Amino acid sequence: MENSKTYQQKHEFSFKFLGNIIKNKKHLIISIFSVLLFFIAWELASTNEWINPLFISSPTAIVNASADMIFEPEFWENIKVSSYEFGVGFILALIIGIPMGVLSGWNKFVYSIVNPFVSGLYVTPKVTLLPVIIIAFGIGPASKIVIVFLMSLFPIVMNAQRAMYTLDQNLIKTAYSFTATQLQIFKTIAIPSTVPFLLTGIRLGIGQGLIAVVVGELFASSAGIGFQLTNYGQNLQTDRMFVGVLVITLSGIILTTILGIVEKRFSSWRPDNN
Fold first, then answer.
1. pLDDT tens by residue, 169-189
2. Helix-, strand-, coil-residue percentages of the chain, each rounded to 5
3. For the domain bounded by 62-273, which CATH number is listed?
């Protein structure tokens, strides 16, 4: 009798534990289900030729193509080139964009110098500058680094400026009342306050940078994922073309996931999370 009761209690605990997991991961399960449903519908549409498979390929064909491409040295060389162009351009955007945004948001004199260029270039479609950039820097990696830098820079600068505009003025007045200097206020109040805005700017910059590197390589390049996409598109190899798209998508997901981990680390400092 005791054994059957213990067995029943164990089962009740197991079902309750499983129910809690499902409840907590409800949105994740819905997301996974919707993605699976999308791929099933895509596979059916391609297999039954409801849409011409030449134009959209199919998930199974893309998986088969990716299995072949990972053994091709050219595929990894193109990823290496694109990674280098994106990495250098994005790091330069961080190194220049963060100080520029913080200082121009903090100091009106610096703002007066920087703002005309930021405002003018921000509203200018960067794609229109590609011919000039390519003429100046050639079709090699340098031109793609420049366009990645330009497209990543402005989200970072403008979010850093916004952080300075939204500083708690009461906190600053309190600091002044305790005879704090501007430098002390800048280091202890202004800089920490920029973190959430900077992370948002960096997140936007990642997306813009990935777009930039592909567009730059599509426009004029001799290597890279964008160059690979152009070649496969011209030869109607849509399965291989989608592998390139998948590489860019996964790169964006990985980078934003890493940034999300960093963001959680900083959000733990906030009082409302304690």
1. 676 667 667 666 767 777 777
2. 85, 0, 15
3. 1.10.3720.10
